[in-house]
Amino acid sequence: MDASVKPAKLRELTSEEIAGKIKEYKTELFNLRFQNAVGHLKNTSRIREVKKTIARLLTIATEREKTVAEKEAENA
Description:
Structural class: mainly alpha
Largest sheet: none
CATH architecture: Orthogonal Bundle
Number of helices: 3
Shape: elongated
CATH class: Mainly Alpha
Helix content: over 70%
């Protein structure tokens, strides 16, 4: 997985794909932290990249939820 994905590319994903990516990156982050604790991780900057990508994905998901809520409020 490439953690340096541009936000524009992430916005093209569907909500289900974003949820799946979040799960994948959280699993990767867990594995990276475990490897770091054991002392087998050579590229420690990967942890930071993955954390930032998770934050980007969560931000996009939250923006979509707010947009849906605003549209529902307008139509109500």
